[in-house]
Design brief:
By secondary structure, this protein is of the alpha/beta class. The strands form 5 sheets. Strands 5-10-2-1-13-15-16-14 form an 8-stranded mixed sheet, sandwiched between helices. A two-stranded antiparallel sheet has the order 3-4. A two-stranded antiparallel sheet has the order 6-9. Strand 3 and strand 4 form a beta hairpin. The protein is globular and about 70 Å long. The termini are far apart.
Length: 294
C-alpha cells in the first residue's frame, strides 16, 4: 500500500506542471550516451510517448556524432573540428546524410512506434523544413593587427528559416516529429548543421515552452568544476570569452541564447545519462542540469 500511496503523491506533485505545459510544445535535442545505451534509448522513447499522451507536444531533433564517426572510420575518412563543429567536405557530407537520415532517424522513429507512439521521421530537406546557408566562421588573427581569418567548414550550414507548416500539420494529427539536422540551401545543396542549432531554431519558430538539450555531462560547469544551475543569456558570451564555456558546449549555449531571444520561455542542458531525465526536468520543481533564462 505504501508504494501505491507514494505513486499517488508523485502524480499530485506533478499536477501543477501538467497544467502549466498542457498544450505547449517542448523541443528536445536527443544526443550523447542516451542514443547508444539500449536501456536509456527505450526510456527516452517512453518519456516522449508519455509527454504526447498527457497533452504536451514533443518535437525531437537528434544528433548522431558517434555513429557518423564509426562510418567515417570504416571508410578511412578523417574528420577535423573547428569551434566544436565538424568540417564537412563532399564525401563527409554523403556519410553524414546517409547515417543521420537513413540510419539514426529511422531507428529512433522505429523505437518510438514500437513502444506505442506515433512518430514520423524527417530530414531537414523534407518539405524544405530546415532552410540553410553556408556557415562562415572567423578564426583568431595570426598577428595582433591582422583581420580575423575566414575558416572554410565546407558543407556546414546555419539555419535561415524553419518551415513550421509540416510540423504543425503532424502535431494536428497527433504525430511526433523526429528531425535529422540536415538542411537545404537555395540551390538544393545539402548542409550538415549542428543538431543543437537546429533544435534552437525549431524551438524559436514554434514558440516552444521549453528547449531541452540532452548531453553526456551534468550541465554547464563553472571554473571551479561545480555545476552552474542557472545562466542568464546576457552572461553567455562573457563565459565563453573567459574560457569557462568551450568546445562543444559553445554551440549549445549559443543555440539556447538564440532560442530564448526568439521567444522560447526557458532552455535546459541536462544529463541524458540520467534515467527519465526529461521527466525530471519538466515535472519537478528543482529540475536537473543547467537552466538558461532571459
Amino acid at each position: 500500500m505504501q508504494n501505491e500511496i507514494a505513486k499517488a503523491k508523485v502524480l499530485i506533485e506533478s499536477l501543477p506542471y501538467l497544467r502549466e505545459f498542457s498544450g505547449k510544445t517542448v523541443v528536445i535535442k536527443y544526443g550523447g550516451h542516451a542514443m547508444i545505451d539500449e536501456e536509456l534509448k527505450k526510456k527516452f522513447a517512453l518519456d516522449i510517448i508519455l509527454l504526447k499522451y498527457i497533452g504536451i507536444n514533443p518535437v525531437v531533433v537528434h544528433g548522431g556524432g558517434p555513429q557518423i564517426n564509426e562510418f567515417l572510420k570504416k571508410m578511412q575518412i578523417t574528420s577535423s573540428y573547428v569551434q566544436g563543429m565538424r568540417v564537412t567536405d563532399g564525401p563527409t557530407m554523403d556519410v553524414v546524410e546517409m547515417v543521420l537520415v537513413g540510419k539514426v532517424n529511422k531507428e529512433i522513429v522505429g523505437l518510438i512506434n514500437h513502444c506505442g507512439g506515433r512518430a514520423v521521421g524527417l530530414s531537414g530537406r523534407d518539405g524544405d523544413l530546415v532552410q540553410a546557408k553556408k556557415m562562415k566562421v572567423l578564426g583568431k588573427p595570426e598577428t595582433e593587427n591582422a583581420p580575423p581569418e575566414l575558416i572554410d567548414l565546407g558543407q556546414v550550414g546555419e539555419v535561415t528559416r524553419i518551415n513550421s507548416e509540416i510540423l504543425t500539420t503532424l502535431d494536428a494529427k497527433d504525430f511526433i516529429p523526429v528531425i535529422a539536422p540536415v538542411g537545404v540551401g537555395e540551390d538544393g545543396q545539402a548542409y550538415n548543421i549542428n543538431a543543437d542549432l537546429v533544435a534552437g531554431a525549431v524551438a524559436a519558430e514554434l514558440n516552444a515552452a521549453k528547449l531541452i538539450l540532452l548531453t553526456d555531462v551534468e550541465g554547464v560547469k563553472g571554473a571551479d568544476g561545480q555545476l552552474i544551475s542557472s545562466i542568464a543569456v546576457s552572461s553567455i558570451e562573457q563565459l565563453i570569452a573567459d574560457g569557462v564555456i568551450k568546445g562543444g558546449m559553445i554551440p549549445k549555449l549559443r543555440c539556447c541564447a538564440s532560442a530564448i531571444n526568439g521567444g522560447v520561455s526557458k532552455a535546459h542542458i541536462i544529463d541524458g545519462r540520467q534515467d527519465h531525465a526529461i521527466l525530471l526536468e519538466i515535472f519537478t520543481h528543482a529540475g536537473i542540469g543547467t537552466e538558461i533564462t532571459a
